[in-house]
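Give me structure tokens for this 282-residue protein.
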Amino acid sequence: MPALIYVLLLGVYPLVKGIWYSLYDYNLIKPARTQFIGIDNYRELFIDSDMRQALLNTVVFTLGSVFFELVLGFVIALALWRDELFNRICLTLILIPVTITPLVVGLIFKGLLLADYGLVGYYLAQWGISDPRGLFASPDTALATLIFIDVWEWTPLVALILLAGLKALPTDILEAASVDGANPLRVFRSITLPLMLPSVLLALTIRSIDAFRVFDSVFVTTGGGPGNATNTLMVYAVKEGLSFFNIGKASAIANVSLLCTAMIAAGLIFLIRHYDKKASIR
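Here you go.
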């Protein structure tokens, strides 16, 4: 019962309330003019250019960050596969970024990359490598910089998940393949990678859901700018709700984001279960 009450209060109730608000033209500045408009808020989103740009930015951010995190995480996991003291120390050290909240990570990189006084950004601007106003001020580099920040913070988590999967692999199969004369690349492609697919999909699921809901690092570094170059769905929803007090439209944006996240999670969880069943049959 306590668990059920917790879920109802902190999960179901806000969700139902958000869906309810999205069906109204509800603005905190004009609460007396609140009226039921059905799905008009959702219909408006489909013709809203800012919404389309926010959705595109969110998809690009998610695909870019998750791709690099998976690749780099796999490389790190393979490098730390052996259970040695040096590898255990390295694993402890590379997990430090994960322990820092995204808000603080965003502030740290903002301080580093600002063109005026940033420890790194100042020299990048002076040497002509970045825009004179800094990496966050240019539409061409702002989103890529945010992807880099996300990769820096969350690659260790992906590496930890993949490393756990590597350590759970049956060593007898790997040893038998080596005895049969298979080279390391063939062993990785034919045995290691197929057996690692559930772990890869698990890491992909966790990071895809989290990356699609990105807010903290974007809000404290660019605020969605310059223009709409880094405006993501969650940032756009917060702007509509807390800057323009348009609760109805903000709720609709949040619900669209929730629906997209649920679809991503459902697809990846289906793949995880599919490969788990195949592995158990084998």
